[in-house]
Amino acid sequence: MTTKFVLVVDDDVDIREAVTGALQEEGYEVASAGNGEEALAYLQSPGSKRPHLILLDLMMPIMSGSEFRAAQEADPSLSAIPVVLVSASGDVVARADSMRVAGVVRKPLSLDILIDNVERYADKRSN
């Protein structure tokens, strides 16, 4: 069985580290980025490994989750990677619909719910 690879994009270092650690304990390979621009740079770098899923914070400096998602959808080599929004924003569900993401996990995080979403959506990548 292939190890699933998840990209965690969140500007909060504590959340990024907690999510990364929890996913690694569950057997996932994990990379992380502090904002959408870092995530996009990683994904567009030659030879970068394509994640099976992106966990994306909505509110971040430099490049927000919605800005990242627009850039991701515009790039045919990245658009098929499923995204789960991870946010405390009150309108996250409405924003998720307009951003065409696979799922939503609300902050404060429940690691059980997060892992359930990762298990559900990491298999959805088309390639």
UniProtKB/TrEMBL annotation:
Modified residues (4-aspartylphosphate): D57
Keywords from the UniProt entry: Phosphoprotein
Protein name (Swiss-Prot/TrEMBL): Response regulator
PROSITE patterns: RESPONSE_REGULATORY
Domain Response regulatory: 5-122
Alphabetical list of PANTHER family matching this protein: RESPONSE REGULATORY DOMAIN-CONTAINING PROTEIN (PTHR44591:SF3), STRESS RESPONSE REGULATOR PROTEIN 1 (PTHR44591)
InterPro entries in the record: Bact_response_regulator (IPR050595), CheY-like_superfamily (IPR011006), Sig_transdc_resp-reg_receiver (IPR001789)
